[in-house]
């Protein structure tokens, strides 16, 4: 059994040396931790929040925003196990090739890889999101009981299919923390630290690798992780 550890109980000055440290227990961090289950690797997952919403931890997301108008920072990211899936809508569909391309009219657009670099992982993600079978944009998989398909032609309007995450025995979309907590606890090579805020990512000489993560709790406890490999999954997108 893996351990869920309250970081506030970790002795001051502790230094942990896992093979892999995952920063952030949202859907990205949880999915990676589950993918590494029962490998020879010793994995640590560091999550800022606990199992439920806590105002003082959520307040760490306070800030100002600029640019395109969007939900306030407090409403658009959740800071406890499961991350923003604690409030997400469950709309699911793969990205389009165009999403990865540089567009001259959009500053900072373009990804360093293309859709085909990640497309083979989509079915696994779909399963984790509990979003049903993989049926996107395939007219042959559409059955008449699902209603008429929109017959849109060439031009700026196109049919796009979404599927909806739906947690078992419930109408809610999958909240990753609640849904996968027991699975995480069953992973023998994993330790999940809750209330563990990574406050510094220390780079090794030359800047190419991470050599230390500093961790702090809101109660003032401090300790460090010296992992061989670090995965930042603290909510970038
Ligand atoms: C209201 C709302 C509706 C949405 N609806 C949809 C939808 O319908 N379909 C869809 O595809 N997407 C939707 N999203 C977006 C989706 O929820 C996110 O894209 C997704 O949760 C991102 O996952 P993530 O793991 O990258 O980050 P997050 O979910 O943000 O998780 C990051 C985790 O890292 C932790 N963390 C942050 N900083 C630190 C730190 N310093 N140290 C340790 N831990 C840290 C946080 O506590 C959090 O648990 C919605 C989001 C919101 C807010």
* Helix residue percentage: 10-25%
Low-confidence stretches: none
CA-based shape: globular
What about the largest sheet?
Answer: 5 strands, parallel
Alpha-beta content class = alpha/beta
How would you sum up this structure, described in words?
The chain has 237 residues and is an alpha/beta fold. 14% of the residues lie in helices and 19% in strands. The chain has a five-stranded parallel beta sheet with strand order 1-7-4-3-11, covered by helices on one side. A four-stranded mixed beta sheet has the order 2-10-9-8, with no helix packed on it. Helix 1 (27-35) packs parallel to helix 5 (176-185). It is globular, with a radius of gyration of 20 Å. Bound molecules: flavin-adenine dinucleotide (FAD). Residues 23-29, 46-49, 76-77, 79-80, 83-85, 87-92, 197-198, 233-235, 237 line the site of flavin-adenine dinucleotide (FAD).
Topology record:
Blueprint: E1 3-6, E2 15-16, E3 20-23, H1 27-35, E4 43-46, H2 55-58, H3 73-76, E5 91-92, H4 122-128, E6 163-164, H5 176-185, E7 190-194, E8 197-203, E9 210-216, E10 222-225, E11 229-232
Parallel strand pairs: 1-7, 2-10, 3-4, 3-11, 4-7
Antiparallel strand pairs: 5-6, 8-9, 9-10
The site of flavin-adenine dinucleotide has 30 residues, from helix 1, strand 5 and strand 8.
What does this entry show, briefly?
This protein has 237 residues and is of the alpha/beta class. It is 14% helix and 19% strand.
């Amino acid at each position: 059994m893996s351990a869920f550890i309250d970081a506030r109980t970790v002795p001051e000055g502790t230094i942990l040396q896992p093979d892999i440290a995952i920063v952030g227990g949202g859907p990205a961090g949880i999915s990676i931790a589950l993918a590494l289950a029962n490998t020879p690797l010793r994995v640590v997952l560091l999550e800022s929040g606990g199992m439920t919403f806590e105002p003082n931890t959520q307040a760490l997301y306070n800030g100002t925003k600029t640019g395109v108008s969007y939900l306030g920072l407090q409403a658009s990211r959740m800071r406890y196990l499961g991350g923003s899936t604690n409030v997400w809508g469950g709309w699911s569909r793969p990205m389009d090739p165009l999403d990865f391309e540089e567009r001259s009219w959009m500053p900072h657009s373009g990804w360093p890889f293309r859709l085909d670099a990640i497309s083979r992982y989509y079915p696994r993600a779909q399963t984790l999101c509990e979003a049903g079978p993989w049926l996107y944009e395939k007219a042959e998989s559409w059955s008449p009981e699902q209603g008429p398909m929109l017959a849109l032609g060439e031009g700026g309007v196109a049919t796009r299919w979404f599927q909806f995450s739906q947690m078992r025995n419930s109408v809610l979309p999958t909240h990753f923390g609640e849904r996968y907590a027991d699975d995480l606890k069953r992973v023998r090579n994993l330790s999940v630290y809750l209330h563990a805020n990574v406050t510094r990512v220390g780079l090794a000489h030359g800047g190419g690798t991470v050599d230390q993560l500093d961790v702090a709790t809101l109660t003032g406890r401090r300790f460090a992780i010296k992992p061989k490999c670090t995965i930042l999954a603290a909510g970038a997108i």
